[in-house]
Amino acid sequence: MIARWIRDSFDRRPWWMNAMMVFCAYMAVIYMPFDFLLKPVADDEEVWFGIIFHGWAAKLTEPLHWMIYALGAYGFWHMRPWMWPWAAVYVGQVALAMLVWNLVYVGGFWGWLAGFASAGVFAVLTRALWQRSELFTRPRLSMRERYGQWALITGASAGLGAVYARALAKDGVHCVLTARREDRLRVLAQELERTHGVQTRVVVADLTDPNGPETLLAAVRDLEIDILVNNAGFGYAGRFDKQETARLKEMVTVNCMVPIVLTSALVPDMRTRGRGAVIMLGSVAGSQPLPLHALYSATKVFDNYMGEALWAELRGSGVDVLTVQPGPTATEFAVVAGEEREPGEPPEDVVELSLARLGRQPSVISGWFNWVRAQGFRIAPRSVLTLAAHEVIAKQTPVEMR
Question: How many Å apart are CA 200 and CA 40, to the nearest integer?
Fold first, then answer.
């Protein structure tokens, strides 16, 4: 399975571009960290535009070199559109640098020969990168073209659910909208039909009821659901012994049981048809223990891991799975959870990012700060970070619930 994933990933680009990607990764992960952290200042050298910098001048410019190689490895791996034309531009200046370096520091006949020979190699790579712009700028097929006609979005009455519905409808996908607030669903359905000309179906369902998922599935049995957005979920801020047991049970039901029942019921038909998509709304909160949001973070560990595992199981079947891990988002979440915090990232940004990454990776963390925070829990002592998280969440939690 790993070998197949690696092969599929490398098949996305020509061999010479794979070689450049591997070189960038080596420089970013091994060579530059060694150069910056371990090499004595007196021995340090860096080359910019063919001119050698020594000592502190070299040391202070190394972070910029590291950033260039890190962006190169990342950009090639994900084939990001911004790599064209900048990858070609950077390799072009390397060609110039090779010529200058050999002329200035080698000189003579051999300097000229080596300079033009090495510059020629990089000039060829520059031209190749410039001519393969289509690899970085391939037009994205619409969600309807990729997966099919109908999407089911849970928690569609507001927040991320409503934004997912708008984005999918814009791509020509008919939408089943489900939540408890019928009035909001009807308004959204009318908007989607009027603005995008798609069909909609409103299904009022209380997913805190253990029978809610079956009620919802019965209401869409006549449709081929090609896209499932497991968006419904809520948080509950406060010290665990002060929280209501009934609401805690409801949170486990909505955040964990509902996506499992819906996914289990709909994925087999997607797999039979050979196409489909499942979006699992996890959270960056699932990357860490979160005091005063203890059960919520635990349910999001469940969602994060479940989605990523399904991604691996369904690879090659035509069914794409993506786990979305947003941080604080400007939705109703904080009000429902009983938090007191500033609005977070716009939900439109989360949805746009997730639909762009669907089919390309198992999960995505929205927002660079959230990504950094999530990675911190991989390397730092969990005890220290958990206590630090307690301090942060306490400031967002009403005094009576701490």
Answer: 66
Q: Give residue 353's pLDDT.
A: 93
Domain edge (last residue) among 115, 136, 157: 136
Q: Are residues 20 and 43 in the same domain?
A: yes
Q: How far apart are CA 55 and CA 46, in angstroms?
A: 9
Tell whether 210 and 97 lie within a shared domain: no
259 shares its domain with 194 = yes
3-class DSSP state of 200 = strand
Q: In which domain, by residue range, is 274 found?
A: 143-401
Is the pLDDT reported for residue 363 higher than 70?
A: yes
Residue 108 shares a structural domain with residue 177: no
Overall pTM surpassing 0.85 (yes/no): no
Non-local (6+) Cβ contacts of 221 within 8 A are none
Helix or strand (DSSP H, E) at 52? strand 51-54
pLDDT at 377 over 70: no
Shared domain for 218 and 360, answered yes or no, is yes
What's the confidence (pLDDT) of residue 376? Answer: 64
Predicted confidence (pLDDT) at residue 374 exceeds the cutoff of 90: no
What average pLDDT score do residues 291-312 get? Answer: 95
Could you tell me the CA-to-CA distances from 311 to 201, 240, 253, 278, 286 in Å, in that order?
Answer: 28, 32, 22, 9, 17
Residue positions annotated with a catalytic role:
296
Count of structural domains within the chain: 2
